[in-house]
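Hey, quick one: can you model this chain's 3D structure?
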Amino acid sequence: MDMMEALIAGGWLMLPLLGCSLLATVIIIERLWTLRASRIAPLGLGQEVCSLVARGQVNLYWLESHSPLGGVLAAGLRNARLGHEQVRSRLQEAATAVIHDMERFLSPLGTIAAITPLIGLLGTVVGMIEVFSVIVAGDGASRTADLAGGISRALVTTAAGLTVAIPALMFHRYFQRRVEDITVRMEEQAGQVVEFLAHYPGELTLAERHEGERDGDRLEADGRIAPRVKPS
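Sure thing. Here's the predicted structure for all 232 residues.
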């Protein structure tokens, strides 16, 4: 039985199963591309930010556009003048938004993994009802081969449902674990920056580009822009 014959034999319930299969495939490909640790939380970024802070060379515009982790660290640095606890709070808020974005589409993928076996089972039940209706009609007992073929066709939907559900469940668990790993990496690097700021003895100076601002102008910790100093 080839693919087209299976689709026809499974009846109309094969259509939602086919739709779930296509949707799951799209989600899996998109999440594989999006949930890359090197894109979301590059290794060494926290240490690099600490070094740049020590030299007064942190550009928040660059940091925000660098990666989602960079955006989290930039949110914390903007509130550094408000105290240690405010930095932690702002980091947590920004990290929550990043985690929410990482978990996008995981719920639909889990739903597909849960409902496709049920759709397949429903198709099998409907098919079995049709088979037994032939037996009840009269001459079904003398058509054993036809009944066996009808039963095998009725089981097609269950097989199709499991075929969709098993990979969807595997990738759902895999993506959940990847989100957890990336979250831990973000927490570790954010913790490095928080501890550095807590023990930083000097005045925090942050660089940032603003509209109308020239290259080299600086954003002080209180939000004022300090123009660059021309060499004498």
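One thing worth noting: Residues 210-232 have pLDDT under 50 and may be disordered.
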